[in-house]
TrEMBL record:
PANTHER family: METALLOPEPTIDASE M28 FAMILY MEMBER (PTHR12147), PEPTIDASE M28 DOMAIN-CONTAINING PROTEIN (PTHR12147:SF26)
Protein name (database record): Peptidase M28
Species per Swiss-Prot/TrEMBL record: Flavobacterium subsaxonicum WB 4.1-42 = DSM 21790
UniProt record, GO biological process: proteolysis
Pfam families: Peptidase_M28
């Protein structure tokens, strides 16, 4: 034991810090956990999770419990952040993990995904099905963020502070993220980077695992690949065709802060036929792919929250 301790000292780290440095590589994402969260959020009982609905309230409570069991605190007085721009009561669900570094903890990384979907519509029913379960859109992204909560909540390996955000009202026009971003900007919130996860439930048949919207706008994409040690993500032409950078919750943060705020996605308009259809349900999700994707995201996000200042920045226009 004494010899091991001396060796650690010689290498320049304590047993604790060494364990932290290797925790991201050693951490294993549990496919059963991935499937359980995804299945709950996309269940018929939640009636498509429309903003302001009882189904979305059930989802919010489930996500609060994810924070509680991982020791992630509310950023505001409670986990529920009421939208200021929607007619019915509906909430973002926000968790906060303070950074461990005296200086870097003043910078925030935001990890987000929207947990609302479009509810039910009888006239668009397929057979007896009228529920838009939104498994890929965006229970898959929410599941990814929840697994990041599991990782960082257990390890507390984050020099920067982290805001975990489950947004409501995305399907109504990015309302939840807009409401929150405006509120944070007014509080002089120090955003370092915002990484959003959207529709990651099925794999792409390409030489990259995922694409990043607004790839050339910042160094985020290059850094993610550097952190991964391989070409994990890239750019797709379809992103510009459909203006995807502006169509998810990252855009609200970019608008307010002009800081790197982008979305990772694996839906490329060729690999999933059920966008905004009632067939977007759990049975059409690839949980093995999702588990592998999240496993790749663990060391990437770990390095993102622990890297030096100005590692991820906007590129000059």
């Amino acid at each position: 034991m004494k010899r091991t301790f001396l060796l650690l000292v010689a290498l320049g780290c304590s047993a604790l810090s060494c364990a932290q440095k290797t925790s991201a590589k050693n951490y294993k994402v549990d496919e059963k956990s991935v499937a359980a969260t995804l299945k709950f959020l996309s269940a018929d009982e939640l009636k498509g999770r429309e903003a302001g609905s009882k189904g979305l309230e059930q989802a919010a409570q489930y996500l609060e419990d994810v924070f509680v069991k991982n020791g992630v605190k509310p950023y505001f007085a409670t986990y529920k952040d009421t939208l200021t721009n929607f007619e019915k009561p509906t909430y973002n669900v926000i968790g906060y993990l303070e950074g461990t570094d005296p200086k870097l903890k003043n910078e925030f990384v935001v990890f987000g995904a929207h947990y609302d979907h479009i509810g039910t519509e009888l006239k668009a029913a397929v057979g007896a099905d009228s529920i838009y379960n939104g498994a890929n859109d965006d229970a898959s992204g929410v599941t990814t963020v929840s697994e990041l909560v599991n990782y960082f909540g257990k390890t507390k390996n984050n020099k920067r502070s982290i805001l975990f955000c489950y947004f409501s009202g995305e399907e109504k026009g990015l309302l939840g993220s807009q409401s929150l971003a405006v509120k944070l900007k007014a509080q002089n919130f120090n955003l370092y980077a915002m990484l959003n996860f959207e529709m990651v439930g099925v794999a792409m048949n390409r030489d990259i695992m995922a694409y990043l919207t607004g790839y050339g706008m910042s160094t985020m994409g290059d850094k993610i690949n550097e952190y991964a040690g391989k070409k994990l993500i890239g750019y797709l032409d379809v992103e510009m065709k459909y203006q995807l950078f502006r169509r998810s919750d990252n855009y609200s943060f970019y608008n307010e802060f002009q800081k790197p705020s982008q979305t990772i996605c694996t839906f490329d308009f060729e690999n999933f036929a059920y966008y905004h259809k009632v067939e977007d349900d759990f049975e059409h999700m690839d949980t093995k792919h999702m588990t592998l994707f999240i496993q790749e995201m663990i060391p990437v996000t770990d390095k993102m929250v622990n890297s030096k200042t100005n590692d991820i920045v906007m590129k000059k226009k």
